[in-house]
Amino acid sequence: MPRFSASVSALRSSAIRELMSLASRPDIISFAGGMPGNELFPVEAVEELLGGLDLKTKQAAFQYGPTPGLPSLLESLSGFLEQKGLPVQKNRLMITTGSQQGLSILAKAFVDPGDRVLTEYPCFIGAIAAFRSAGAEIRSIPVDNEGLDIAILQEEAARPDPAKFLYITPYFHNPAGILYSSERKQKLIETLQGRDIPLIEDDAYAGLWFHEEYRERLKPIKAIDPDGIDVCYMGSFSKILGPGLRLGWLLAPPAIYEKCELIKQSADACSPSFSQVIADAFIRSGRIGPYITSVRQEYRRRAACMTTALRNHLPEYVRWSEPRGGFYIWLTLPEGSDSTPILKLAIDGGAVFVTGNTFDPEGKRNNTMRLSYCNNTPEEIERGIPIIARAIRDVCG
Amino acid sequence: MPRFSASVSALRSSAIRELMSLASRPDIISFAGGMPGNELFPVEAVEELLGGLDLKTKQAAFQYGPTPGLPSLLESLSGFLEQKGLPVQKNRLMITTGSQQGLSILAKAFVDPGDRVLTEYPCFIGAIAAFRSAGAEIRSIPVDNEGLDIAILQEEAARPDPAKFLYITPYFHNPAGILYSSERKQKLIETLQGRDIPLIEDDAYAGLWFHEEYRERLKPIKAIDPDGIDVCYMGSFSKILGPGLRLGWLLAPPAIYEKCELIKQSADACSPSFSQVIADAFIRSGRIGPYITSVRQEYRRRAACMTTALRNHLPEYVRWSEPRGGFYIWLTLPEGSDSTPILKLAIDGGAVFVTGNTFDPEGKRNNTMRLSYCNNTPEEIERGIPIIARAIRDVCG
Description:
The structure is a homodimer of 397-residue chains.
Chain A: H1 6-9, H2 15-23, E1 29-30, H3 43-51, H4 55-60, H5 71-82, E2 92-96, H6 98-110, E3 116-121, H7 125-133, E4 137-144, E5 147-148, H8 150-158, E6 166-168, H9 182-192, E7 199-202, H10 221-224, E8 231-236, E9 248-252, H11 254-268, H12 273-284, H13 288-313, E10 328-332, H14 339-349, E11 351-352, E12 354-355, E13 368-372, H15 378-396
Parallel strand pairs in A: 1-11, 3-4, 6-7, 7-8
Antiparallel strand pairs in A: 2-9, 4-5, 8-9, 10-13, 12-13
Helix pairs in contact in A: 3-12, 5-12, 6-7, 6-11, 8-9, 13-15, 14-15
């Protein structure tokens, strides 16, 4: 056996891989994936944009670029982010190879093996993987429908050995689907101020809101720009252009950015120029706004369809909330339930979802399940949800 | 100041960044970069290939792919590598986000902070950055014109605490420009056999040979497939399609591959699908062979032009070898010389190169300099080399 490093020896084949293989089985309806529908990608628009580029830009798409990103994309993306009120000028912006790389870089920047970091429970699996890969001990703090449990955060913040950072996804949480309230964000800010715990704010689903009334809640903490907290704001083109481009971004205070740039240099030198040229053209052409509007409407339709199906078929003891945006609905079964046998029955019936323990950094709590509606037709949703509901009844009664 | 991890606190702004900024100054002739000439990229061919794809493939270019790579590219690349005699079936193949990511992943797989790894002296800066970022102590073994110093390797291999791996770039070495002899490779194999030191064989310049007579030397150690050594073979599309796609590959024994896949999953989930679709189409269309032939001929012309200019202008005390392929010529000045003041004079004169200490893991030895000819017209080479030669004379007499 090769003499692997200590942190890697501990890594085991993870849930993500199993998830991917389940989700790609053609014979079952998958509510498991977190990928946009293939039919929604702006294939024609990008083809047209690529054709219209000048030769110099086309050549640059094949060439190495600077580690932080192509200057033209950094400029156009800065404009895009400034429209959201983000303090781009006071910080430094870096293109990452998907926001997954942003997580990996930040973990490496802050975590020595054994260091404690704070996340939400449940938590995005890519973050669990990145933090664990850096050797972090993950302490996860439960969320309710308004956000993180502030009492627990206060305890953590008061410890003499504070955690290395807090990671949250306040906007259409993956997997919990929730949207933080403005009050909860304010309390979170007050708790962290002056505590030397950087905040990683992951806004991967930005733009995918379903109702005007909740737009006020979408203002990033980074845009509130609170004193006394180092906020590292992350975003992604995955949901507003295509994950296959592998482009995310990180907006961070200069001292943090500096370290992140060095880490990125050794990680992959630079993000794909070809993708960056496409994203830049997509922003500059003005197509990104109407595109986001169109997918937002489509995901709202799919969410509404799933909401109706769940109302019609789920037993009453299953708790869930109507999504306000994003890709996911999170089901909570009665205390003591186990979603793994439900998954087995559902697969037999021809539908698949992700069990809750996948999103538990401790891998235990499992009376929950994630359903995604982002990649399903109404017909699939109407056929698939009764299968899930039946499996729940068969197991939970 | 944020509480960075120990390994990151030690990272300093590196030579790579300075190099990039020097190389991009429009007012000076750059022999510093290791990037292909922009005018050589197969822009039209790729445009045509993209236009000819079916809708399903176009959509897949926007979508997440499996962590190890798109199945279609893994299949076509396997065929490409089997033509080089590589034992693809006995190993596992993974697409990486540039071969830089391959280095970063392997470093993470094997290195705990403080672990010793072996490289060549001089050594590719991307490897130095990746290994150092993982916390490695780098022990570099000098190369001569035929390859690594075997006596020193034998000493290292006999230590009771063997190094975690040996990293070499035997084919048109960056920066030394050398091509290992078959004898030296054989001795290296014999030294490593049964020693529990995996070999990382970096073949990024494969295909860019200038003379038929040296083709025999190009057979990868991985293709020789020696018993008793775990060989991790790395390659890249950067020089045979375009670095802006950020696509490399790693062919590794299954046990090593397994860990690498988990690391990649947490690093960036998957490499860019858009790039992978392009590379796959480029291989399957049969265009890759003629394209490699055409760039090989062009780089040979540029190398010949630089060779002539160096013969005409360099003082006799500068030692160098005519390149047999690849991108670089490595100049060795008399013992005790320092190439840094030469670089300053050269920049004043309007030309730039990379000082030798950049490629020294210890950052010291500096009586050497790297000139690259890959991205220059004959006219630039003829104007630039006299500037370099004059700077050498001004400093070394």
